[in-house]
Amino acid sequence: MRDILVGVSGASGMPLAACLLRCLAAMPAVRVHCVVSHGAHAVLRAECGSGPELLTAHASHCYDADNLGAGPSSGSWWRRGATPAAMILVPCSMGTLGAIASGATRNLVHRSADVALKERLPLVLVTRESPLSAIHLRNMLTLSEAGAVIMPLSPGFYLNPQTLDDMLLYMCGRIFDQVGLPHTLGRWLG
């Protein structure tokens, strides 16, 4: 059983977070953990008409964003299974990205990402911002050099998506590739 921690920050992109959590929950070899930042609550309501329960319903373990003593804030939590855990931060706001890049951990989302980096474990940051400032780009470079995968929320159109779900599932497949999770979601075959 592999532990996957999904962090959700207050950026646009909540439909992808919901789709990702649904897909992860359907994987029998994955135990889904979730932490939703306070900033994500308002964005969830605006984009999905729901509160955090839309996301947390698909997780076997949910953590309060203010609980810096929760399991994912410790390096030993990440290595307790046969396969080390991974973290996916979707969507990742530029404020959260900046906090992680500077090591300023103000909540469990930040701290968990910081621990994933120090433990050299998979960390995927699904960013959703445009245009990007020089500060955003420097923070992304800092995190990439530290081992994180920076993955802008940019769906592939070469698969000819017909619906929003098609685009979301494509992104989920790309994210799963980055953390080494097998899947049958669409992929470009060349």
Describe the protein's architecture and organization.
The chain is of the alpha/beta class. It has one domain (2-179): Flavin prenyltransferase-like (Rossmann fold, 3-Layer(aba) Sandwich), CATH 3.40.50.1950. Helix content is 42%, strand content 17%. It is built from 8 helices and 6 strands, in the order E-H-E-H-H-E-H-E-H-H-E-H-E-H. Strands 3-2-1-4-5-6 form a 6-stranded parallel β-sheet, with helices on both faces. The radius of gyration is 15 Å and the shape is globular. The mean pLDDT is 95.
Question: Outline of this structure?
Answer:
The protein is 42% helix and 17% strand. It contains eight helices and six strands.
Task: Sum up the structure in keywords.
190 residues; Rossmann fold; six-stranded parallel sheet; 8 helices; globular
